[in-house]
Amino acid sequence: MDVSKIVDQVVKKNEGEGTEIYFVACGGSLVDMYVADYFLKSEAKKIGTGWYTANEFVHVLPKRLNEKSVVILCSHGGDTPETVAAAKAAKESGAQTIGLTHNTKAGLLKYSDYSLVYEWGDETNVKNNPMALILDLTVSILNAVEGYSAYNDFRTGMERINSIIEKARKLVAVRTKKFAEKYGQEKLFYVLGSGPSFGHVYGFSICSLMEMQWINASAVHTGEYFHGPFEVTDKETPYILLVNEGRTRALDERAKLFLDEYAEKVEIVDAKELGLGTIEDSVIEFFNPILFYSVLCEYREALSVVHEHPLETRRYMGKVNY
Fold it and tell me: What pTM was estimated for this model as a whole?
């Protein structure tokens, strides 16, 4: 099914009403959902939202879950046990379930009222990748249920984001190699950012660095940086700072000013420099993480080359019992 058909059926079943949308997944798939949750918290007047790691959702099932709730679940391989269990629990509670996966035979689809089997790979249009699809579902449901004044601007942004990313990847090609050569032997990175991009600050830390490169990492919100974490700032520790376009840019710029003075190993990834400004101000912030994901994939690939550590290499995942 496509997004528009799913939205039409969800809204029809709910008779034009909506109580809440839950976003449930694990790891990178959960990260892909962060911006949609952020969007609802910012823009929705009536629809509530919850962002859950799947195993916690199963063990702490929301009591208000009902037949008008919508639970969006994502698993790239489609058989993540915790996410499949969460889908089963949601469906048994009467909620409408939407499952996203890259696998047409995924176990997740067994418990999905509606399914989206998405495209994947460097040659695909990012609007057909999970982060953009989940955001599209969320924005479209909100627009259908209570209206969204910037909906047309959002649709235009969805058509523009792929070309923006293609140009940004070319822009950082040399920079990422220099970054990897300079910082390739570091044992710890602090990754900073804010707003809708904080999900990817977290994701780059736990997935790209810790999982895929076995490098220690910590995600720090720039709004919290000055409430504890800045005390460890020095000239020996590397920082990666994502600077958003949109309402929370001031938080990121404040952190940048401090890092410029008290740190030396700082990599700035700025959405403005990368060309996000061609998207309308009314919706630009929601496209930051889609851009950052693709650009930071170039950074992790460059690190993997310097480390001689393929991104697919695992020590425990899928190899031992856990």
Answer: 0.96
